[in-house]
Each structure stands twice: as C-alpha cells, then as structure tokens.
Amino acid sequence: MNIKNKTKFFFITFKFLLISIFCTFFFISLPKELNALDAELGKNLFKNHCAGCHINGGNIIRRSKNLKISALKHNGLDSTEAIAKIAREGIGIMDGYKDKLGENGDQVLADWVLEQAQKAWVQE
Fold it and tell me: What is the CATH number of the domain that holds 98?
C-alpha cells in the first residue's frame, strides 16, 4: 500500500469514526428530550382525564382506590403495565379511556402516574 492509499484509508476511517461518535451522542441525548415531552403529555392526560376523581393521586369516590404508592402496591398495581391496563380498559366503576388517550397514551400516562406515586405526589 503506497502513501496515497494509506492517507485515503486514514481519512475514510477518521470520517467514519467522527460520524459514529456524532450519531452516538445524538441518540443518547434524544431519549431525554422525548422523556420530557412524554412527561408533559402524561401530566396533561392525567389533568384532562383523571384528575377529576384522582386529585393529587387521591380518589374522591373510593378513598382506598387512590394512586399513592402504598395503595398501588397493596392492590398489585405498582407497574406501568398494570396502570396502563386500567387506564385503557377501566376497573370496577371506573371506565376505560382507550379512545381518549390515543395511541400509546395509556403507557405515557402510566409512566407519569407511577413516577408521581414514587414521589408521593409532591410537585417539584
């Protein structure tokens, strides 16, 4: 391999390395932005569809069916999957909100609810 080919190989490898580093940093930073958007969407979904009965994670109809972490654990609902299923399908006298939450809205809402429960519904 002559000097010209070695130099060309070096620059191609260097460009590939720089592009790889850029893409890695871009994709690492992307989920943080999406999580912030999801958190805001989760908060809005809760405010629009849940807060009427579950003010600050409570329950104005049946106090024991609240969204506090202790009640969620007691009822076996301390996972995003379980919360999303209830938001989507309903439970007991609570209706499901599948049509109102939109695509993946149940998961976004469940993530937000569980996060709030873990923070004892204390707003930052």
Answer: 1.10.760.10
